[in-house]
Amino acid sequence: xxxxxxxxxxxxxxxxxxxxxxxxxxxxxxxxxxxxxxxxxxxxxxxxxxxxxxxxxxxxxxxxxxxxxxxxxxxxxxxxxxxxxxxxxxxxxxxxxxxxxxxxxxxxxxxxxxxxxxxxxxxxxxxxxxxxxxxxxxxxxxxxxxxxxxxxxx
Length: 154
Fold this sequence. Notes:
The chain is an alpha+beta fold and 154 residues long. It is 42% helix and 27% strand.
């Protein structure tokens, strides 16, 4: 969902990779409190549009993203608790985190002018029954910074 959403600049698809607690928090703060956007979809649309634009500047038009999973390892109970604790602490929500993986992927970004392949380490977790990106949510809550950019995931 994350890669498809970025490739197609589709906020709704990209948002499926974000924990619902984070979406709710952003809706409350960015949309309702700060009135910076009319909707959370508008907020994420700006993110995916700017990401696609940056990729087009670097690689040309007709961007295609592909990835191959190089390895994956199951997260420990402690890491799952850390993800749960971070989501609960940062987004003031009670969640259930039942499974997760540390995944190393080979990501290829290809455009009309150029292409590049890089490796990325991603954390994915099943939060309240949905598989989402949990990169930067698996560390100790005291040491974690959840403001990862999309570039950190590529």
